[in-house]
Amino acid sequence: MAHKKQNDHIFPLQINELEKIIKNKLENNADEDLLFSIYEHQGKKIALFGISYVVDTDKMLNSLLAPLLSRTTAWTTDSLLNDIPLNGGSTTDSLEDILDDLIFGTVYVYIEEDMKIVSYPLMKEEKRGLEKSETESVVVGPQLSFTESLSTNLNVLRQLLPSKDLVLEKMIVGKDIPREVRLVYMKSVANDADVNTMRQRIQQLDVDEIEDTTAMMQYLEDSTTDVFPQFVLTELPTHVSYVVKEGKIAVLTENSPNSFIGPSTFFSFFESTEDIYMRWNGASALRLLRMLSIALALLLTPMYVAIVTYQYELIPTALIVSIGQSRAAVPLPPIMEAILIELMIELLREAGARLPTKVGQTMGIVGGIVLGQAAVEAGLTSNILIIVVAVSALASFTTPNYLIGTSLRIIRFPMILLAGIYGLIGVMFGVCLLLIHLLRTKSLGRPYLSPIYPLRLQDFNEVFFHSLPSRSSKRATMYRPKDRTRYSKKEAMRKRDIEE
Question: Are 118 and 80 contacting, i.e. CB atoms less than 8 angstroms apart?
Fold first, then answer.
């Protein structure tokens, strides 16, 4: 909000003078958007004004104007503040404050020749209701997703976590367009150092505005140039409630249907919310399948290029004939062939994502079949490479988080180039560079590859598979929670008969 000027105090004055000043300051918006009404009672004039498209007119008419006009006693500033059934009423004598708050839905009531003006925040909120998640598909468990209304999101979290230990810390970010930000954590569980680090990074943001949670997340990451995301982005309240109980910190912002969570590890992006609601054996199998899909999505196409180009002696004898026949009519070298088909898959994927849902699905299926068959018949690629690229694309789709899937898609192209130039040695060189980079990466100051580095064997059951309920009485140590105990294992294991 702007600083007050020396000549900012304009009261007392006539109502027609106030109307002229407000309209002059608002310039082009005055005639069309400013609601300025004048009423008279017991020899006193009163003005009520606000901007039409940001004010909740029903609340203004029923809760403010109706009680105001039905009064039988004289109007005074104190009586307005005490008798009008609205919260948030206050007074000001600053023209700059009036102009600043008008655009945020504040309605002003001025009694002629008074020294101050009364204000009420009556902003109209246009928000969609609670709906099913579109970007994070959940087979088992609650389907509800966040909305653009921060108050609605906080209400949902309070219902999921009805605990006095839950902290919803409020902050304001943005100089020109301030937005409300909430820091969500469990006071008795979350590590104080992590909370302080996240709070400090948010408070030090010196930006005009925060467009969305995803935009703010990029400002707060340890390395803003890294191809890997360092915070998990989610639109599921159940995901936020679960990780907060584990000692992590979530951040929500006004006008954003997403929340980001930190500190996060590389393996956090492959944990699905539905793992919580599935039986331990099924959830563990699916989680291990997602881990395997990382290797397939990243290495399958580069390995094909390297082996076909340089290390063809590794191909079984029965298979090498099929590959030779398939590639006999292809004029392109394997590296160009692979990059061409990978680019085609990426174009189909992006086109399907941008088109309307029904058209996008048709485009992805029909376009993939038609283009793939046409490329084979035209001699631009082989049947086997089509299968390899298709399996690689399917493996990248298994990641529950869209951001990490995008990162793997980007890295796959340099890996193909290394495979085409240096063969398997190039692939191993790329893998080593990737591991070195991941070892150096941090999320909120915590190691990105934990619990592999630093090695914490006791946390493997929280990362690589979903452990039995009887063996999950302790929280993971890699996030350094203040309270590691979820429940008493001894009491939970005691079996009691009904007669007892």
Answer: yes
